[in-house]
Amino acid sequence: MLTVIIKYFCITVFGLMLFSCGNDIVNTNSENDLIFEQQGLVDSAVVTGCYDYTRFHFLNDTFSTAGYRKLRVEFDGLTSSDRAKIFFVHYSSGINNNIVYQKNNEGVNMQHNFEIDAPAETSWYELRLFLSPQVCGENEFKFIRARDLKVYGIK
Predict the structure, then answer these.
(1) Which is the most buried residue in 48, 130, 145, 146, by most CB within 10 A?
(2) Is residue 60 part of a domain?
(3) b/e for 98-123, b at 16 or more Cβ within 10 A?
């Protein structure tokens, strides 16, 4: 009798283990195409004095967005300053310096994930990091950084 109970217990535990694994199917939705990726540190700015600083990081690719309705952009941002901004800027032959995404101060420290309309023509994009130390002191150290940038085309 004890062996029957142990067998049922083992079968139940094994079944629960299989059930807890869940469904690990990777989403291979063909509607979203990864068209640009830069892993690791994309760009950063460090200020150790009392001055504003801006980093202009042009994505090292031009984008042909033919066939896409929208673009989804993802990256991680982090800053130690209370006066920081992150911009995502679009350039094309008809439009110059169009800011399509902006986060200020507390909105910088997060995983950024946003969609923009895909332009009909070839475009260039820039990730802009702005840092302005709120306190001017000797050896004041403030930073801003962006990591793991991905751009997807959405059909």
Answers:
(1) 146
(2) yes
(3) eebeebeeeebeeebeeebebbeeeb
